[in-house]
Every structure is written in C-alpha cells, then in structure tokens.
Amino acid sequence: MFIKQRHLGLLFAGFAVMGLVGCDVASEAQEPPAPVQVSVVTLKTEDLLVTEDLPGRVAALRNAEIRAQIGGIVQRRLFEQGAEIKAGSVLFQINPAPFKADVDSAAASLQRAEAVFVRARIQVERLTRLMRSEAVSRQMYDDAVSQRDQAAADVAQAKAALARSKLNLEFASVEAPISGRIDQTLVSEGVLVSPTDAAPMAKILQIDKVYVDVRLPAAALDALRQLADATSASLAVEILGSDGKPLGMQGRILFSGIEVDAGTGDVLLRILVDNPQRRLLPGLYVQARIPRAHYSESLNVPQQAVIRTVGQASVWVVDAQGQAQPVAIELGELVARQYRVVSGLKAGQQVVIEGIERLSPGTQVATHPWQPAASSLISTDKH
Q1: Bridge partners of 216?
Q2: What are the pLDDT digits (tens) for 331-348?
Q3: Whether pTM exceeds 0.85
C-alpha cells in the first residue's frame, strides 16, 4: 500500500512539472521578438565638391640657359652653385683685354673719321663762296661735296664699330637674364667659350612659382569649363605628393591645351603653383586634385550602407514606426567613401549603416547613431 501511494505521488509531481513547462512555452510564444539593434545616420544636405587626382610633372616658371655671346677665356666664376641669383648679376667674367683693345682701336678710328669729315666740310664751305664768284669749276665743287658726304658716312660707320666694340666688352661680363636658382656650372676657369658652343655655361630656373602639367581626358574638359563659369573664379587645385598625401599647397588652372593627343585622347592642363619654399623641383612627379563638379545641396550615404541587387542600388530606411524598409535609390559620384544620392531619399530620413544583415522588410529596430571608423574619414576622391 505504501508503494502504490509513492508511485501516485511521483506521477502527480510529473504532471505538475509538465504543466509548468507548458505555461512557460505559452508565455514565450506570446512575447514579441526583441528589436534588432542597428546604427543609423540621419541624412542632411551638404556642400559637395567632386575632385579627381591626376598625375603631373613640375616645370619651372622660367628656364634660362647661360651662354657666351663672344669668344674668349673664362677668367672667373662669380656665383655659388645652387644659389639664388638676381637678374643682372654677373656670373662669369671672360678675359676683357682683347675687347678693351678693340674699343680703343674703334675710338681712334672714329676720331680719324671725324677729322676727315671736318676737313671735308670746311672745304665745301670754302668752295661754296668761290662758286658764287665763279672762281672754281662746278666739277671741283661737286667732288668736294662728295668727299664730305663720304666722310660723314665714315663717321657713322666708325661710331657703329665703336658701339659694337663696347657691346662686346660688356658681353665679357656674362650676366643672369632672369632671377632664380642657378644649377651647377658646366664650365670652369680657363675654358675657352664661344657663341657656337653646344652646351650652355650654366642654367637658371625660376622656381618661386612653378607649373604642374597634367593630362586630362578631353571628354572632361567641358565639365571643367562649366564649373569654372559657374563659380566665376579661378578653380583651386590641391597639390599632392607622389604618395597621394597633401602637401599643403594650392594652385590655379591657367589654361588647357588646344590640341588633343590622338593616341590617348587627353589634353594638357597647366596649373600655376606658388612655391616659396622651393619644395617642388622641376621634373618632380606629383598629383593634382582637379575639381570636377560642385553640388551645393547634396545628400550623401556611406558606401557600406548601399546594397546592390541585379544592378539596382538600395538602402534600408527606418520609418516612423521604427521598422526597417528597403528603398531603391539612384547613385552619383563616390567621394570620400560616400555616395551622392541622385534620387530616392530626402533629408531627415534615417538610413541603416550597420546591422543590415539581420534585417527583413518590417523588422522592428532599435537605433543608435553611427560612428564612422577613423580610416573611413580619409578622402579617396573621384569617381
């Protein structure tokens, strides 16, 4: 009897446990699922400048080759290689002695020609008075006038020879035609130089301002012109190093080439850049960040928020009921890892950035602001 009562107790206890479990399952079935945690960004209009990084080469603003204009022996070099030179500074001194002798000889020839001219002029004046009294023949008078005119021509020729001799003497001091930084010297003291030498004596480069020449697709030239017309100002161009890092230097577009390269379809674009610290050297490879388009009120979404399905771009948007809904959008340029939205969204909407993989249409979500990673803040222009 005792054993039967024990079995009945165990049976009732089992039924009680099963009843409790059934209650828990029923309560769980009635509770709604927890909202999905997602990070969102609220759209707002921004000023957007679309740029493109193009490779370019630095060229000097002015480039002057120093050459001898007379032949002679170089006596002295009057500059330090790599120094800043002012226009008009004497760079080389060619032996001036032969040219000083030429000046003295030309001056003496001029004096002799002037003396002959004075005598011929006096002779004509004397014969003029005699001609009035018919004391001399007409032939004698005409010969005297001819000799006077020849003497005057000899004076003019002697003056020109003297001026040329003085000019050669000045050319013995080789001067800098422009201001800038002088390169290494290509001749030394004692070298014989002449105007026919193939190589220059030295070179001067003006690099306080430099050109950056880039090649731009001809198809993009019209958009650049329209942007310039819209802004009514010179387009600012940021200069980057060969590694793509900004150099803290800006330039302005001067002009574009008038001929399109038949092989590449590109056109030359020349940019003027202030270079007071001489950081940009001629021949250096750099990059230029060229403006391509400007949007005063642009809606942008992070790249990671965009989903593409069979070519159609879409994003998840949180509606007024706190539910996630997919929305098809049309995209424009990609700038700094953000797409410009052409259509499909409006300012004030919340776009899901993180947690997209757990969403389905109508999913209840709990939102918190999206915090971009530091690496995503790096600009990766163009597009």
Answers
A1: 267
A2: 988 888 889 999 999 999
A3: no
∠241-247-250 over CA atoms, to 5°? Answer: 110
**Widest CA span in the chain:** 191
Please name the residues in contact with 315: beta carbons below 8 A apart, sequence gap of 6 or more. Answer: 301, 305, 306, 307, 326, 327, 329, 345, 351, 352
Contact (CB, 8 A) for 239 and 251: yes
Give 300's strand partners: 340
Cα–Cα distance, 105 to 111 (Å, whole number): 10
**Cα separation, 102 vs 318, whole angstroms:** 95
3-state DSSP assignment of residue 354: strand
Q: Strand runs (DSSP E) across 218-322, as ranges?
A: 236-240, 246-256, 266-274, 285-302, 307-309, 312-318
Cβ neighbours of 209 (radius 10 Å): 15
Low-confidence ranges of the chain (pLDDT < 70): 1-31, 230-234, 374-383
CA angle (246, 251, 256) in 5-degree steps: 120
* Tens-place pLDDT, residues 135-177: 888 888 889 999 999 999 999 999 999 999 999 999 999 999 9
